[in-house]
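Please, structure for the following, as tokens.
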Amino acid sequence: MVFTFIALWTITIILIINGSKKDSMIWGALITFFGGCGAFARAMIESFLPYLQKYELVLPSAEAWFYNIYSIGSFMNTNGLPYAFFMFTFCY
């Protein structure tokens, strides 16, 4: 998941830089951004948090932040991604 969100957010930046004048490209960039948010949320819980817990580098209060970030990223993925798909098809 770490590679996935890095790749998706890199594509987002490239789409914004190259096609920021077209509405369809902006919505395409939002598709990759929202997909990357979901991948980032999964990476936080499945990769980063277990690593930090293994070496005792995370406080219990910081674990709550990880789960809050997971909730926000999952919400953006499940609700923003279908909307961005719809708007992309409408603009394209």
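The CA atoms of residues 56 and 91 lie 49 Å apart. The radius of gyration is 15 Å.
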